[in-house]
Amino acid sequence: MDFYLHIKPSFDCVLNYYDNQKSLIKNKTYSFILKDKTALSFYPSFSEELNSLPFSCILEPFNENSLQTNMSNLTLTRFPNNNFLLEVNPFIFANSPVGFGLKTKVIRSQNTPHTISWFSNNYLNCRIENSTNYLDFRNNCKVTDMEAKIKDGNILIYFRTQNSKFVTCHILYENNKYFLQEMQEVDLLEGNENTITTYKNLHDYANHGEITTYSFENAFNKTKELAYNNQKPTITKIKEFVPFAFFEALKNKNFKLARNYLSPALSSKLSNNHLNKFFGNFEKPYQTLSPEYNPEEIALIYYSKPVKYAKVYNIKFNNENKIENIEES
What integer pLDDT is reported at residue 305 of this predicted model? Predict the structure, then answer.
C-alpha cells in the first residue's frame, strides 16, 4: 500500500532518504510517496540550530492504514486517504557538562524534602527528586532563574527565560510519585506570597489570551479564564480565515464568539452542547493536505497515540461569508 507523506520541518534542514537528498525550508510542506519501511535522516543546515544534532528516524506501517515513527521530536498525524503529516522539530542537545551552571533548590512539604536541579543559561533540563523517586522534564528554551511554590502535593516550578518570558511546570506529588500535570510557556507572570498569575497569548484570530491563577493560601486551587489582548475580540469576515477563526473560538469554549461565524439559521439549530459534542476535544484547526488550497475545506487535529489523526470538514458559506453548513468529508 502507498502512503502519501507530507513533511513540514520547523527549521531549515537537509533530508536524506533512500539515495535522494532534498533541501527543506522551515515551515514549508513537502510531499513524498512511501511504499515500505523507510529511513529518513535530517541535517540542520543553518547556524540558528547549532544545538540540534543530525538525527534519523524509521517510518514503517504498523497496520494496513497507518504509519509509526520512533522519535519523540517528530509528530505524525494521519489524514484521510493514506495521507500523513510529519512535523519535524530539531533534536536539541540539552545536556550540559557536569556541574556547569548547575543550580539546586530544596522545598519541603509534609516533612518531605524535594530537591530541584536545573542548569542556568541553558536549555531547560530539570529534575525534581526525593530520596526514593524523581521526575525529569525538558523544554527547548533557555532559562535563567527559577522559583518554586508548594502546597500539599501540588508543586509549581517556574523559570524565567532568556527572552523574558516564563515556563511554568505544575507537578502533582502523590503516593511518593511525581506527575507532570502541565508545562507551558507564558508571556507574563506575577505573584505574591499566596498567588501566582500568568498570562499566555494564544496567537489566534480573536487575539485571545489565557489567564491562569494558582492559589496557595488555603487548599491549592488552579483556575483558567479567557481574556482578550485588546478590549474586544478581532472578528474576521475574510472567507479564507473564517473556518480557522470559528474553530479556534470553539476550541476555547467561546461559544458566543463562535456563533458570530454561523448563519442565523444554523446558529439557531445548534446548542452549545451540540457544538461541543459534535466536534469533540480537538487540538487545533489545520489546513488540509490538498495541493490546491480550498477555503471550503478544513482539518481538525485530534489527540491520539501513537499517531494523531485528522478529520476533514467541508464548509458551505452564504453570501456574507457566514457558515451555513458543515459536513465531515
Answer: 79
Of 65-69, 180-184, 214-218, 248-252, which range is least confident? 65-69
From edge to edge, which strands make up the β-sheet containing 134-151?
102-109, 112-119, 122-129, 134-151, 154-161, 166-174, 177-186
d(CA 13, CA 49) in angstroms, rounded, equals 9
pLDDT digits (tens, 9 = 90+) for 241-278: 999 999 999 999 999 999 999 999 999 999 999 999 99
CB neighbours (10 Å) of residue 274? 10
- Provide the 3-class DSSP secondary structure of residue 316: strand
> What gap in Å lies between CA 56 and CA 68, rounded to an integer?
14
Which residues, listed in sequence order, are joined to residue 135 by a DSSP beta bridge?
128
Q: What are phi and psi of 26, to 5 degrees?
A: -50, 130
Looking at residue 108, its amino acid is R
Judge residue 210's burial from the number of C-beta atoms within 10 Å of its C-beta, 0-12 exposed, 13-18 middle, 19 or more buried. Answer: middle
d(CA 104, CA 262): 53
Please give the share of the chain, as a percent, with pLDDT higher than 90.
71
Cell numbers at residue 270, please? 445548534
Average pLDDT for 224-231: 88
Q: What is the band of 232 on the pLDDT scale with cuts at 50, 70, 90?
A: confident
**8 A C-beta contact, residue 100 and residue 324:** no
For the whole model, what pTM was predicted? 0.82
Is residue 118 within 8 Å of 136, Cβ to Cβ? Answer: no
CB 158 within 8 A of CB 169: yes
Q: Decide: residue 223, CB within 10 A, 0-12 exposed, 13-18 middle, 19+ buried.
A: exposed
Contact 210, 225 (CB under 8 A): yes
**DSSP letter (8 states) at residue 19:** T
How many angstroms separate the CA atoms of 285 and 1, rounded?
28
Distance CA 116, CA 102 (A): 10
d(CA 196, CA 191): 4
